[in-house]
């Protein structure tokens, strides 16, 4: 555990600085510093800062996904070329050609997991901060013993401590009353359902609207369909082991991802996808409205010109006469 804490030390330092700083601001705004709401919003601030910092990574992820979609037909050709060949030479040749294609396109199939992988240390760091606070010990930076005690005792809705887990609530000798146990289970259950639902919706909007026909025929699309149902199950079963504070981070982060994907799919859809057709239809309607207005504006000057005197064009003869005189 000491080795693990050593690796997470800089991450915990930053997490505690953000939590303590946002908590101080909320306290200055009049919130009860010992309330679960104050620490809930502090965790939300942490999510917003982390996800805002990861926007460049998300942009790279989108570009990498586009390249993967562009090379999907070529990737399918390679797979069809070695289809049914199970010897070692064919497998190595297929692997070499596939990696060469990825290298040429400047992408890889694991790029879509990069934002989640970068957030995993944050999850574990927040878990350790919560665990330390639950023990009443000060943190590694700005989490003083007083703040740690407040954080460890803070409860959502007044009955679901942020340090609590669903699995621990059922354990013997947990120290929770029956009312607290019910509150923890209900709160954790709602969070797990919302986490799973938000993950499913995020993946579904990618699968249903933001895939080109070529991509839908590729093996990668089949893998994504498996992930569509597997990832929510991961949240469903793993959520019972995480403290409510960590689940708060996870839930808010999932909603951020869902909204972010909605904006990207609506405004920057994949070429050839259903989302692109919907965007083109919206743009066509806007152009049609603007075109009607422009026609009406162009007609008014023409009618005024017919009623008024016809403007006389300037002749070129005068300029020629001046040149002859010179």
What does this molecule look like?
The chain has 326 residues and is mainly alpha-helical. The protein has one domain. The chain has 14 helices and two strands. It has a two-stranded antiparallel ribbon. The relative contact order is 0.10. The C terminus is likely disordered.
Question: What descriptive keywords fit this protein?
Answer:
mainly alpha; globular; disordered C terminus; 14 helices; two-stranded antiparallel ribbon; 326 residues
What count of helical segments does DSSP give? Answer: 14
Run of helices and strands: HHHHHHHEEHHHHHHH
The helix content, as a percent range, equals over 70%
Overall morphology: globular
Strand order of the largest sheet: 1-2
Query: Biggest β-sheet: count, sense, barrel?
Result: 2 strands, antiparallel
Overall structural domain count = 1
Radius of gyration equals 30 Å
Uncertain runs are 293-307, 316-326
Report the span from N to C terminus: 99 Å
Give the arrangement of secondary structure elements.
Elements: H1 2-28, H2 36-53, H3 55-70, H4 72-81, H5 88-105, H6 114-134, H7 145-153, E1 155-156, E2 160-161, H8 166-169, H9 178-209, H10 213-216, H11 219-238, H12 244-267, H13 274-307, H14 317-325
Antiparallel strand pairs: 1-2
């Amino acid at each position: 555990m000491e080795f693990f804490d050593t690796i997470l030390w800089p991450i915990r330092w930053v997490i505690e600085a953000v939590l303590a700083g946002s908590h101080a601001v909320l306290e200055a705004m009049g919130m009860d510093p010992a309330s679960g709401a104050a620490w809930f919003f502090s965790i939300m601030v942490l999510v917003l800062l982390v996800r805002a910092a990861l926007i460049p990574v998300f942009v790279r992820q989108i570009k990498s996904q586009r390249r993967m979609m562009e090379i999907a037909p070529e990737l399918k050709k390679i797979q069809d070329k070695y289809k049914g060949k199970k010897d070692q030479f064919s497998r190595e040749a297929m692997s070499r050609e596939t990696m060469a294609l990825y290298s040429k396109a400047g992408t890889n199939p694991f790029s879509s997991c990069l934002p989640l992988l970068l957030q995993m240390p944050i999850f574990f760091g927040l878990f350790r901060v919560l665990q330390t606070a639950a023990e009443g010990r000060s943190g590694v930076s700005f989490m003083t013993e007083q703040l740690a005690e407040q954080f460890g005792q803070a409860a959502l809705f007044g009955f679901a401590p942020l340090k609590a887990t669903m699995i621990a609530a059922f354990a013997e000798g947990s120290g929770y009353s029956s009312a607290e146990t019910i509150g923890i289970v209900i709160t954790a259950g709602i969070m797990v359902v919302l986490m799973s639902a938000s993950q499913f919706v995020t993946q579904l909007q990618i699968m249903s609207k933001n895939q080109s026909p070529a991509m839908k025929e590729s093996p990668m699309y089949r893998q994504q369909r498996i992930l569509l149902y597997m990832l929510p199950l991961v949240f469903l079963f793993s959520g019972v082991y995480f403290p409510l504070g960590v689940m708060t981070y996870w839930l808010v982060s999932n909603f951020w991802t869902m909204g972010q994907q909605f904006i990207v799919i609506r405004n920057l859809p994949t070429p050839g996808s259903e989302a692109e057709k919907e965007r083109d239809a919206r743009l066509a309607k806007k152009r049609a409205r603007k075109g009607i207005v422009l026609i009406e504006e162009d007609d008014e000057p023409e009618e005024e010109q017919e009623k008024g005197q016809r403007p006389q064009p300037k002749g070129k003869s005068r300029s020629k006469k001046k040149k002859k005189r010179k």
